[in-house]
Amino acid sequence: MQSLLEPIGASAWGGRYNFDGYLVKCATSKSYVQVFRSGSIEAADATLFDVPEQYKGFIPSIRLEEKMIEAVRRYLEVQNQLSTSLPIFTTVTLLRVRGFKMSSNPLTPFVGNEKIDREILPLPEIVVEDYSLDPGTLLQPAFDALWQACGIEKSMNYDDNGNWRPHSR
């Protein structure tokens, strides 16, 4: 089960029991996953916006969404294996994002792209009522809200049927 608890953006990690439940920490970066005794899971990562200097101030939309979808998929599988009762609420909060813009390629920014106007951006919570639902579909409203914080109507990484399809320029 520990492989499912891989911290976001981690290349090496290890876990141990702690007072709250089970903690998995990345050996090389600032990311962790805490599984609480209740079955709740908290994940944090401080590396998703670590980008080359020319990309500073831009949210790497494809990488962010891909990593979040992948993480939610794994963590829901853990909760399913632990028989955590449904519904489950999933939330994503971005910290220190004031002034960031959305991007798939900063050299050709999206039309209408504006800077985020706040430091803390709590995206709408997602209700998971069935373990078999696709995490990409579940997370679309949260991703749409993130893009709206940048002045863009919705995530450009979804097709007209609501399937996650990374946008390319």
Description:
This protein is of the alpha+beta class and 169 residues long. The chain folds into two domains: 46 residues, no CATH class; 122 residues, no CATH class. Helices cover 21% and strands 24% of the residues. The protein is built from two helices and ten strands; from the N terminus they run E-E-E-E-E-H-E-E-E-E-E-H. It has a four-stranded antiparallel beta sheet with strand order 1-2-3-4, with no helix packed on it. A hairpin with a 2-residue loop joins strand 1 and strand 2. It is globular and about 45 Å long. The N and C termini lie far apart (38 Å). The mean pLDDT is 88.
Strand content: 15-25%
The number of distinct β-strands equals 10
First-to-last CA distance: 38 Å
Q: Uncertain spans, ≥5 residues at pLDDT below 50?
A: none
Return the domain count: 2
The H-and-E topology, N to C, reads as EEEEEHEEEEEH
Number of helices: 2
Taken from the alpha-carbon principal axes, the silhouette is globular
Helix content: 10-25%
Largest sheet: 4 strands, antiparallel
Structural class: alpha+beta
For the structure shown, list the relevant keywords.
about 170 residues, two-stranded parallel ribbon
Q: What order do the helices and strands come in, and which of them pair?
A:
Blueprint: E1 13-18, E2 21-26, E3 31-36, E4 41-45, E5 58-60, H1 61-81, E6 88-90, E7 93-95, E8 101-103, E9 120-122, E10 126-128, H2 135-149
Parallel strand pairs: 5-8
Antiparallel strand pairs: 1-2, 2-3, 3-4, 6-10, 7-9
Helix pairs in contact: 1-2
